[in-house]
Amino acid sequence: MRYKDSSLPIHERAIDLLAQMTLEEKIGQLLQPFGWKAYEKSEGKIQLTEVFKEAIAKGGVGSLYGVLRADPWTEVTLETGLSPLEGAEVTNLIQQYAIEHTRLGIPILLGEECSHGHMAIGNTVFPVPLAIGSTWNVELFRQICQTVAAETRAQGGAATYSPVLDIVRDPRWGRTEECFGEDPYLNSEMAVAAVRGLQGDSLNTNHTILATLKHFVAYGSSDGGRNADTVRMGKRELMEKDLLPFQKAIEAGAKSVMTAYNEIDGVPCTSSKELLTEVLREQWGFDGFVITDCGAISQLKGGHQICETEEEAATLALKAGVDMEMSGETFGRYLMNALQLQLIDISDIDLAVERILRAKFELGLFERPFVDPVTAQRVVGQQLHLEMARQAAREGIILLKNHDEALPLSSSLGKIAVIGPNANNIYNQLGDYTSPQERHHIVTVLDGVRAKCAGLSEVLYAPGCRVKDPSKAGFEMAMEVASAADTIIAVVGGSSARDFGEGTIDLKTGAAVITDQFSLSDMDCGEGFDRAELNLCGVQLELLQELHCLNKKLIVVYINGRPIVEPWVDEHADAILEAWYPGEQGGHAIADILFGDYNPSGRLTLSIPKHPGQLPIYYNKKRSRGHRYLEVDFHPQYVFGYGLSYTSYQYDHIRLDQTQIELDDSCTVSVEVTNIGDVAGHEVVQLYIKDCTSTITRPERELKGFQKIYIEPSEMRIVQFHITPRELQFVGSDLQWMVEPGKFEIMIGSNVGNTISTSLEVIPRNLRK
Questions:
Q1: Residue 553 burial by Cβ neighbours in a 10 Å radius (0-12, 13-18, 19+)
Q2: Angle between the 586-594 and 445-453 helix axes, to the nearest 10 degrees?
Q3: Contact residues for 83 (Cβ-Cβ < 8 A; gap 6+)
Q4: Cα separation, 459 vs 157, whole angstroms
Q5: Residue 656 falls within a domain, yes or no?
Q6: What values do phi and psi take at 669, rounded to 5?
Q7: Cα dihedral sign for 455, 457, 458, 460?
Q8: 384: helix, coil or strand?
């Protein structure tokens, strides 16, 4: 059994093991059943289920999805779910049983959701990716991913289904919160950081996990922002925008890719040989394995309807380049039949199995299938991780408006009213793909404000209303509380909270109550929750309008998973903070900014429209973008890259070290950035490039670089960017990347609408003046 010799090359070990496997064992490696069905916890006792044992007896299981996941879909609760210590114990039980009760002792690959922290009870809940994108802090995100990997691997998880690299074209899409934003360059930088943080220098450690890039590809570009709907896109745009972050992540070493549910120009991604084999493997050199999204193969027959039988669906996916099926239903039931019908060859199966075995060897699962439960208990949720979550939330919060310097507030204001449905609801601030958590782990805005004002100001609270419920029963109490205060902090927005069985709030008292959660659900965002509008749901706007009538300072804090379009709030609020879903430390982070302990540095990664009828409104649309509407122009309310600070920054003296370069040459552009205010802060310096004339129509400007810098008052910093052919190239008429000679405008500034510029000329080789 040479495959057990760790001194041999991984390829040799995989080939040796593959040669010893039966057909049933091979197909078993391609399956990923639901992991939470592998164990049962009752009265504090944990045991493996007969369902899991039967699956092992039938030939084994290659992978399990979400062993440690807890949420309404899995029906795993705080009571029936696993603590970090118990999670490690369960994964050890699973591995031990699989190794001891299979002929070849192949360990199981345990895959977990880690969109913004490991989706398990007790694990650190970081801000959602949209908030992470708004930090514009690539190194911080790498450190977060490193932390998430350590917490996950400590409990036995070895793969994650992140990062999400979809480009958001229409923020009405419910999964907007899972993405970094609308720009391919920013997404690419975050993609590389995620791979390096999750996978590290080696997968064969006790603190790194395999990254899975999703959703491949163009999942965020569907018609009308409807989940998994049709994507109408040419190959050039696909290459320049949606494929680019995936390509950069593959170059960084990503070892797994997940297919998207959608079709592109009539071809479902799960059955696209062009995408999964020709582009991914042959052009980019990807050497990992491809996994489907849950149930995606069956959709080839039941949804896309491109085949008549499940055997044909399994065949299309396998031959296109799919190696593993999440849920395992189609491969498990029909792949054997497809082989007998000669729709596939055994070599097709062998190729997929070998790729999965290689990943297991790379992860060191054959040598180290078990983890230490005590270590898991120590690593997960430690104080250092909480501090990182707080810092990420701080940096991702965007100050959209600050009329007459309404912020920062003084912590000695007398009385402060904290009002709104998201002021003290823990799950409304955590986002989708979150497991139930103990109340004391989560810091709400009310918690954060009270902690900040302890002993200095009296903090009053009233929920006022719920996110979606039309009831105004809480208005009277909210107005009474607000009337007694000097300043009003209104925390409104949306929710991606699933039904965790935690009840709701009594609008008249603010107390938690247990009731029919379904009828009172706040959820208006998250997977499967697409919207036609972008306004505040329910009676939230009416609550704000009544509060405004009190003629007191009104600070609006948005907690939500997609942009909010409310012109009245933009006009009448004294200050507006966009916090997205800021995670478990979000309340402290918001209070830090409200009271001036942190100077806001978040910047938008999505253009926020004035009206949803302007959609799509992403900043890098083509120059030939058409004319304005009759009712409204095509300019957004808040542009890409926008965000205010408690200080001001001035940009001067943009310079190129060479104003003329040859096609394959490079140059450096520099700019002086001065803090002309009285407060130190972080500024996000953004580089945009415009190809002034091109044979293929190009965007008006494209982000090609950014740096987040810290500047003291009156300090001037010189910021430099290196411009190479990669920043100047586009996809030509032959679908190849190219740089054309001509004039380029180089722009640097604080957002896409506020830049200073200079010109660069690119000339053919050997024609330098």
A1: buried
A2: 50
A3: 121, 122, 377
A4: 42
A5: yes
A6: -110, 140
A7: negative
A8: helix
- Pick the closest to residue 33 from 19, 53, 10, 5 (CA basis): 53
Residue whose entry in the numeric block shows the structure tokens 């949209």: 130
CATH code assigned at 702: 2.60.40.10
Range of the domain at 49: 24-119+149-370
The rounded distance, in Å, linking the Cα atoms of 479 and 483 is 6
Q: Is the separation of the CB atoms in 437 and 584 below 8 Å?
A: yes
Please count the residues of the chain: 769
Average pLDDT (67-80) is 95
pLDDT given at position 514: 63
CA distance 164 to 245: 10
If we measure between CA atoms, which residue out of 535, 642, 562 comes closest to residue 225? 562
What is the count of structural domains for the chain? 3
pLDDT tens digit string along 615-631?
999 999 998 767 788 89
CATH of the domain at 411: 3.40.50.1700
Distance (Å, whole) CA 697 – CA 706: 24
Residues 226 and 293 reside in one and the same domain: yes
Q: Is the dihedral of CA 167, 172, 173, 176 positive or negative?
A: positive
Domain identity same for 165 and 78: yes
Place of tokens 């793969």: 159
Mark whether 402 and 356 lie in a shared domain: no
383, two tokens: 């104080």
Rounded distance between C-alpha atoms, residue 107 and residue 356, angstroms: 11
Backbone phi, psi, residue 19, to 5°: -65, -20
Domain shared by 406 and 358, yes or no: no
φ, ψ at 25 (rounded to 5°): -70, -35
| Tens digit of each residue's pLDDT (9 = 90 or more) over 109-142 | 999 999 999 999 999 999 999 999 999 999 999 9
The pair of structure tokens assigned to 406 is 């309404």
Query: How many angstroms separate the first and last alpha carbons of the chain?
Result: 67
- In this structure, what are the phi and psi dihedrals at residue 17, rounded to the nearest 5 degrees? -65, -45
pLDDT over 60 at 519, yes or no: no
Residue 66 lies in a domain: yes
Tell me, what DSSP letter sits at residue 178?
A: G
- Per-residue pLDDT, 499: 79
Are 240 and 295 part of one and the same domain?
Answer: yes
Do 337 and 414 share a domain, yes or no?
no
- Rounded distance, CA 156 to CA 530, Å? 34
pLDDT of 517 strictly over 50: no
Is the bond into 385 cis (omega within 30 degrees of 0)?
A: no
Per-residue pLDDT at 500: 78
Examine the domain organization and report whether 362 and 316 are in the same domain. yes
User: Do 191 and 282 have their domain in common?
Assistant: yes
Three-state DSSP string of 365-401: CCCCCCCCHHHHHHHCCCHHHHHHHHHHHHHHCEEEE
Q: Tell which residue, 165, 183, 331, 332, has the closest CA to residue 256.
A: 165
For residues 596 and 639, what is the distance between their CA atoms, to the nearest angstrom?
25
Asked whether residue 628 is domain-assigned, the answer is no
Query: Is 226 within the bounds of a domain?
Result: yes
CATH number at residue 78: 3.20.20.300
Q: Smallest Cα–Cα separation from 507: which of 543, 536, 483?
A: 543
